[in-house]
Amino acid sequence: MRFDARGRDLLTRADGTTEVFAYDRAEARLLDRTIETISCTPPRATLHRLIGARSGNQLRSALEEALPDERAAGTPLYLLLDDFAGTSLIAPGVWQHWPSAERGEESDPPPLSVIRSRALPQMEGVCIAFQAGATPLRDVDGDLQSFGDVVPLPRPTDPRGWHPLPSSPGKSLRRARRIDVWHEAGLLHIDAMFQDSASTPSGARRAIHEYSIGATVDAASMSVLAIHAIPRILPYPECPSAVANLHRLIGAPLRQLRTVVIERLPKTMGCTHLNDALRSLAEVPLMAETLDRALAARGLKSPPE
């Protein structure tokens, strides 16, 4: 698998003008979910320590050791690298969107049914969709999954809404996320989205997972006051029920969501992909600090109503 990951922090002013506060790009090659090569722009001196780490919990532990300052600073790079774990797990699913006659590149992968039959016994209990007896544990061929065709993310009416997206002809998976934050009357509002989509022979993209998330946060304590998620496109009928457990995050400090989500929404209490989206909200306090500094630079002592 080849990764081309890009992320930025973008300020949008009331007059519609924008300013990029941070931009990172990471490129990597993984074999059997293990990092063989990796680079980033701007470069980091300790990034090479991730070579040999396998995506999953091992990679997240390696991130803590190799790039602790990136997490503390809430850089786009940290969020991009943290996403390698979930993205590499589901990337082989791209093959089911391509006819077998069009799969010949460097080498053909094993049939999807073989991949799934190897993985399924190990998957029981990992998330709400894989509870005992659930649909995906019976779906060796992947025939019962649901997908949804999606429109391109960039909108002609909002050309700055997304950074340039990688051009990835052929078979590819894209994990896209957006986190918007704004102040209002002592509250911090969050509007976020998360989408995994696969390329198809027609050139259109087909979503595998998609959520939208909204939250209200106390701006002083940075604790969650209210949170909800809307399942938009998910593969199995059991998947959407994970949102019913989000009340467990009420009162949680945003900055600790990377660990709190795992503690309060473990295994069959949560959805792996929703959890990934929720964990990313741990960066919101740092986004809010950037927003506050931008307001202060304009002579605004408090957020406008």
Structural commentary:
- This protein is an alpha+beta fold and 305 residues long.
- The chain folds into 2 domains: 1-82; 111-297, no CATH class.
- The chain has 9 helices and 8 strands.
- The protein has helices spanning 57-66, 68-73, 76-82, 84-90, 112-123, 135-138, 257-264, 272-279, 284-297, and strands at residues 2-12, 18-31, 34-41, 148-150, 173-184, 187-199, 205-218, 224-233.
- Strands 4, 5, 6, 7 and 8 form a 5-stranded antiparallel beta sheet that branches. Strands 1-2-3 form a 3-stranded antiparallel beta sheet, with helices on one face.
- Strand 2 (18-31) and strand 3 form a beta hairpin.
- It is globular, with a radius of gyration of 20 Å.
- This is DUF2889 domain-containing protein.
Counting structural domains, the number is 2
The shape, in one word, is: globular
Low-confidence stretches: none
Largest sheet: 5 strands, antiparallel
- The end-to-end span amounts to 47 Å
By DSSP, the count of extended strands is 8
Order of helices and strands: EEEHHHHHHEEEEEHHH
* Radius of gyration of CA atoms, rounded to a whole number: 20 Å
Strand content: 25-35%
Quaternary assembly: single chain
Mean pLDDT: 88
Helix content: 10-25%
Structural class: alpha+beta
Q: How many separate helices? A: 9
Protein name: DUF2889 domain-containing protein
Organism: Aromatoleum petrolei
Question: What's the short version?
Answer:
This protein is an alpha+beta fold and 305 residues long.
SSE diagram, text form:
Layout: E1 2-12, E2 18-31, E3 34-41, H1 57-66, H2 68-73, H3 76-82, H4 84-90, H5 112-123, H6 135-138, E4 148-150, E5 173-184, E6 187-199, E7 205-218, E8 224-233, H7 257-264, H8 272-279, H9 284-297
Antiparallel strand pairs: 1-2, 2-3, 4-7, 5-6, 6-7, 7-8
Protein name: DUF2889 domain-containing protein
InterPro entries: DUF2889
